[in-house]
Amino acid sequence: MKQIPEKAIERLILYRRILMSLNPSDRPNIFSHELATLSGFSSAQIRRDLMAIGYSGSPVKGYSLNNLVESLNEFIDSEEKQHVAIIGLGQLGRAILNYCKNRRKKIEIVASFDKDPQKTDQVILGTHCYGIDKLEKIIKEKNIRVVILAIPAEEAQEMAERIMKAGIRGILNYAPTNLYLDNDVFVENRDMILAVEKVAYFSRKIDKEGFVESLS
Amino acid sequence: MKQIPEKAIERLILYRRILMSLNPSDRPNIFSHELATLSGFSSAQIRRDLMAIGYSGSPVKGYSLNNLVESLNEFIDSEEKQHVAIIGLGQLGRAILNYCKNRRKKIEIVASFDKDPQKTDQVILGTHCYGIDKLEKIIKEKNIRVVILAIPAEEAQEMAERIMKAGIRGILNYAPTNLYLDNDVFVENRDMILAVEKVAYFSRKIDKEGFVESLS
DNA sequence: TTCACACTGTTACAAAAATCACAGCGAATA
DNA sequence: TATTCGCTGTGATTTTTGTAACAGTGTGAA
Ligand SMILES: NC(=O)c1ccc[n+]([C@@H]2O[C@H](COP(=O)([O-])OP(=O)(O)OC[C@H]3O[C@@H](n4cnc5c(N)ncnc54)[C@H](O)[C@@H]3O)[C@@H](O)[C@H]2O)c1
Ligand SMILES: NC(=O)c1ccc[n+]([C@@H]2O[C@H](COP(=O)([O-])OP(=O)(O)OC[C@H]3O[C@@H](n4cnc5c(N)ncnc54)[C@H](O)[C@@H]3O)[C@@H](O)[C@H]2O)c1
Predict the structure, then answer these.
(1) Whole-number Å distance, CA B84 to C1' C9?
(2) Looking at chain B, which terminus has fewer C-beta neighbours within 10 angstroms, N or C?
(3) Is B169 on the interface with A (CB under 8 A)?
(4) How many Å from the N-terminal Cα to the C-terminal Cα in chain A?
C-alpha cells in the first residue's frame, strides 16, 4: 500500500469523529458529499482518502456508517490499547487529562507524572500521579509509548531526551518550544499562542478582503 | 504581493518565536541554515519564506536578528493591538487565559465570558469575566474580532453563530466539534484527542518501521 | 587588486496534493 | 427489458508546495 500522507491521516481521524457523532439507526448510510459538508473537505477528497485505506462503498447507498467507522478504526487504531502518559499536571495537564480520559477505546492514559511532591503518589482525575523519579520504571512497566508534555518550556528539552531514552515514540508537546530529538520520535507541537496569532492574522485578512477560501 | 500559503504563515510565526528566544547581543546575526536547524525546516524553505515577505539579509552576515524579527512583526502583526476574548472559563479556558495573557505585544485578551454566575462579574486571572448576556455589548465596546472557544461541544455551534453575528472574524475552537459558518469567519480547530490519536498513529508507525521522515 | 569563500535571492525543477471528470454500476421506474 | 439516475472509484490533470541549483555579492586573505 502506498504511503498515506500525514494530512490524509488527520482527515481520516476527523472523519471518524464526525461519523461517530452520527446515529446509525437514524442514518445507516452516508454519501461522500454529505461527509464533505460535515467535514469541510471536498467529496472527491473524501472518496480518495477512503480509497487510500481500501474502503469501498456502494454507488447506490453510499457508505455504510457502521462499516466505515469499523474500517477507520482498523486503520487508525492499534490492535492493543495504546498507553499514554501525561507529564506535568498543572492547569493545562489536568484539563487535558480530564478531557482525554476514556474518550477512545484504544487510547488510555495510564499514568501522570509531576515533580511537585504535593501532586505525586495519589490518584488525580482517575489516574495515578507518579513522582518524576519513577518515570523510566513506570514507562517500562506500563508499556507507555506516547507522552503528552505539559511542563514549562525550560524543562521540555531535557525531559524529551529523557523519555526518548526511556522508549517513548510519540510526543504531543504543549510547551512553547521546539524539541530536538532523533528522528525516531514523532513530535507534534501545539503551541496555543501560535494558534492565536494565526487566527488573528487570518481574521484581519478577512476583515480587509471580506472572505476566506480555505477552511481548515 | 502574491498570496502566501497558510502553512507558510505558520512557519513565519514559528520563526519569530524561535528568533525571539535568542539573545541578539550574543548573536546579532543568523544564517538560514541555523534557523533551519532550530525550526526543523530546510534552509531553502526559510530563504523562500523570507523572500515572500520581502525581507533581505546579507550574503555575508546572514540575517540580522533584530531586523528580521522587526520585519516578521510587521508582517504578522496588525498595527493596532488585536483584542481577543475567551468564552468558557472552565479548566481549559483558565489554562489558556493564564498562558496567553501578556505574551504578545499586539494581542491582548480583553474579556472572558461564562454562563456560570459563580464566575461572572469578577476579575479572573487578570481579565474581567462577563456574563454571556453581555456578549454582544462587550464585543462591540471592546472591538473584539477574535475569540477562543472553550465551551462544551453541544453549545459550540450556537455560540459560534452568535459571535459571528456579533462581528467576530476568527475563532480558535477547542470544542471537539466542527463549526458550520459562513466563510467570512476563519476557524481553527484544535481538538486534543485528535492530536493524541495522530501521535499514537505515527508512534506506532515508527515502532514498526524504525524512523520517520517528516517532522512537523 | 585579485581571489576564494560562504552565504543569499531567485529561478528552474520535482514532488506532492487536490481537483476534475468520467466510466461503471445497481436500483428504481416504466 | 430498457432507460434513467446519482453515486462511487479512479486515471488524468491542475495546482500547490517544496527542493535544488546557481548566479550574484560583500568580505577578508594574500
Ligand atoms: N496554560 C496553558 O494553557 C498552556 C497553553 C499552552 C502551553 N502551555 C505550556 O504548557 C506548560 C504547562 O502549562 P500550565 O499552565 O499547566 O503550567 P503550570 O505551572 O500550571 O503546570 C506545570 C506543571 O508541570 C510540573 N512540572 C514542572 N517541571 C516539571 C518536570 N521537569 N517534570 C515533571 N513535572 C514538572 C509542575 O509541577 C506543574 O505541576 C507550560 O510550558 C506552558 O507554557 C500552557
Ligand atoms: N479540558 C480539556 O483539556 C479540553 C481539551 C480539548 C477540548 N476541550 C473542550 O473544551 C471545552 C471546555 O473544556 P473544560 O475542560 O474547560 O470544561 P469545563 O466544564 O471545565 O468548562 C466549561 C466552561 O464553559 C462554561 N460554559 C458552558 N456553556 C457555556 C456557554 N454557552 N456560554 C458560556 N460559557 C459556557 C461553563 O460554565 C464552564 O465554565 C469542552 O468542549 C471540552 O470538550 C477540553
Answers:
(1) 37
(2) N
(3) yes
(4) 27
Give A143-197 as a DSSP string.
TEEEEEE-S-HHHHHHHHHHHHHTT--EEEE-SSS-----TTSEEEE--HHHHHH
Q: Which residues of chain A have pLDDT under 50?
A: 214-216
Q: pTM for this structure?
A: 0.95
Residues with CB under 7 A from strand C: A 5-8, 41-42, 44-45, 47-48, 58-60; B 31-33, 43-44, 47-48, 50-51, 55-60, 62-63
Name the fold adopted by A82-191: Rossmann fold (3.40.50)
Q: What gap in Å lies between CA B142 and CA B112, rounded to an integer? A: 12
Q: Is there a contact between A57 and A63 (Cβ–Cβ < 8 Å)?
A: yes
Residue burial A162-174, b: 16+ Cβ < 10 Å; e: rest: ebbeeebbbbbbb
CA B155–ligand 2 middle distance (angstroms): 9
* From B134, B136, B158, B174, mutation site for ligand 2 pocket: most ligand atoms within 8 A of C-beta: B174
Taking the CA of residue A24 and the C1' sugar atom of nucleotide D30, their distance in angstroms comes to 81
C-alpha cell at B152: 462544551
pLDDT higher than threshold 50 for residue B216: no
CA distance B20 to B65: 9
Residue range(s) occupied by CATH 3.40.50.720 in chain B: 82-191
Closest CA to A136 of A117, A113, A152: A113
Under a CB-based contact definition with an 8 Å cutoff, are residues A140 and A167 in contact? Answer: yes
> What's the CATH architecture for B6-76?
Orthogonal Bundle (1.10)
For CATH 1.10.10.10, the residue range(s) in chain A are 6-76
Tell me which DSSP letter residue A78 carries: -
In Å, what is the CA distance from B81 to each residue of A21, A93, A211, B23, B108?
A: 39, 30, 22, 25, 7
What cell numbers appear for B146 in the block?
477574535
Q: How far is CA A186 from the centre of its chain?
A: 12
State pLDDT tens for residues A162-214.
999 999 999 999 999 999 998 889 999 999 999 999 999 999 999 887 765 54
Cβ of B138 below 6 Å from ligand 2: no
